[in-house]
UniProtKB/TrEMBL annotation:
It comes from the Bacteria. SUPFAM superfamilies: Trypsin-like serine proteases (SSF50494). This is Trypsin (SGT). One of its GO terms (molecular function) is serine-type endopeptidase activity. One of its GO terms (biological process) is proteolysis. PANTHER family: ACROSIN-RELATED, HYALIN. It holds the Pfam family Trypsin. Keywords: Disulfide bond, Hydrolase, Protease, Serine protease, Signal. Residues 1-24 form the signal peptide.
Length: 258
């Protein structure tokens, strides 16, 4: 199930995180819930985080581009219907920056399986730090951070406050035993296989999975894509493997002028 969630269908509730879920689009996986098993993020802790009005997350790739999941958008082209909220952990804060979209570029060839990335061009720049993307598999290991405003429990409501959690890497062979449909070359898995309890959830789709690089800076290795339920034992979260698509993303960003 994709981990996106339409805000029209779910009211913002008390904070809690459920990794990797989001509302489904007609041609893609459903966005997942919020981060499950998480804690509240501090103001300014992850300044690159973006909340999208269709019920997904995202990260600032550049001041005018948001990297999110393909299943969160309906194709490519002009689009002024999306509002990006940034600069706050509290979505109801009066200091939030809100910017409309102008265009969307969905991953070429996306058909609901794999290739789950998209870029959203903004009408004005957002003055916040951006999140660099991994261009090699060097950081596709260890423990990752996930963050989002999605549900904190499976089937729960979207959250008002940004939640964060730590999820460990799950190798392809182990993840394939949980999901036969895994596209190993395009997806990366993370979660607590034996116990569950920590994950992304509905409303977290499109948000980043990231870790520190060798220089101590945040680097994005995944995009919240899908999973079976939220935080279930034996069912890790599945994320778009950013390094696989780094060059495609760069090319798309250049096309959008971002």
């Amino acid at each position: 199930m994709k981990r996106s969630a339409a805000l029209g269908a779910v009211a913002l509730a008390a904070f809690s995180l459920t990794p990797g879920t989001a509302t489904a689009q007609p041609t893609g996986p459903e966005p997942g819930p919020s981060v499950v098993g998480g804690t509240r993020a501090a103001q300014g802790e992850f300044p690159f985080m973006v909340r999208l009005s269709m019920g997904c997350g995202g990260a600032l790739y550049s001041p005018t581009l948001v990297l999110t999941a393909a299943h969160c958008v309906n194709g490519s082209g002009a689009n002024t219907s999306i509002t990006a909220t940034a600069g706050v952990v509290d979505l109801q804060s009066s200091s939030a920056t809100k910017v409309k979209s102008t265009r969307v570029l969905q991953a070429p060839g996306y058909n609901g399986t794999g290739k789950d990335w998209a870029l959203i061009k903004l009408a004005q720049p957002i003055n916040q730090p951006t999140l660099k993307i991994a261009e090699t598999t060097a950081y596709n290991k260890g423990d990752f951070t996930v963050a989002g405003w999605g549900a904190a429990t499976e089937g729960g409501s979207q959250q008002r406050y940004l939640l964060k959690a730590t999820v460990p890497f799950v190798d392809d062979a182990t993840c394939k035993s949980a999901y036969s449909e895994l596209v190993a070359g395009e997806e990366i898995c993370a979660g607590k296989m034996s116990t569950g309890g920590v994950d992304t959830c509905q409303g977290d789709s499109g948000g980043p999975m990231f870790r520190k690089d060798d220089a101590g800076a945040w680097i994005q290795v995944g995009i919240v894509s899908w999973g079976e339920g939220c935080a279930r034992p034996g069912k890790p979260g599945v994320y778009t493997e950013v390094s696989t698509f780094a060059q495609n993303i760069k090319t798309a960003a250049a096309q959008l002028g971002g």
